């Protein structure tokens, strides 16, 4: 089978965004059971010099929806601040990302292969093609922040495991 940029990105984004949304729902239940406050969970960090859960959720939306928007525009720049401040806002960010990701069709994604694009952060500009940006920058960042969000919630005492992180697997259903 030939490499498909669509298959390497869209289903993975959908799977882990869906899992992240379910993890936020489990965090809500954890708080409803009186085990923590919403503010404590939203602001929780693994260690002092790492970003909080709110940033991790922002980042998974940015490195999925935002990355796709960026390759379509030919340029991607991370946005500072604007962290979601509640479980409801986190759900909204994830739902928005899922909607955007779901609107991409195979032909549109495959048409991006070899198209020039750049990553900009202040004065720094890094040249990519859309496919190398998605596979070597956006996807690793997306997975890092999804994993970190899971790790933060696990460290806060949520009864979650690897299956919760994986979400809905892409299984073959015809045999």
Can you count the beta strands? 3
**Straight-line distance between termini:** 20 Å
Strand order of the largest sheet: 1-2-3
Q: Can you summarize the main beta sheet? A: 3 strands, mixed
What class, by secondary structure content?
mainly alpha
Order of helices and strands: HHHEHHEEHH
* Separate helix tally: 7
Share of helix, binned:
55-70%
Low-pLDDT stretches are: none
Q: What proportion strand? A: 5-15%
Residue-averaged pLDDT, rounded? 95
So what's the overall shape?
globular
| Rg, nearest Å | 17 Å
What is the element layout, followed by pairings?
Elements: H1 5-32, H2 38-42, H3 53-73, E1 75-76, H4 87-102, H5 106-110, E2 116-121, E3 124-129, H6 130-155, H7 162-166
Parallel strand pairs: 1-2
Antiparallel strand pairs: 2-3
Helix pairs in contact: 1-4, 1-6, 3-4, 3-6
Structure in words:
The protein has 175 residues and is mainly alpha-helical. The chain is built from seven helices and three strands. The protein has a three-stranded mixed beta sheet. Helix 1 (5-32) packs antiparallel against helix 4, helix 1 (5-32) packs parallel to helix 6 (130-155) and helix 3 (53-73) runs antiparallel to helix 6. The longest helix has 28 residues, at 5-32. The two termini are 20 Å apart. The mean pLDDT is 95.
Give a nutshell description of this structure.
The protein is mainly alpha-helical and 175 residues long.
Features:
about 180 residues, mainly alpha, 3-stranded mixed β-sheet, 7 helices
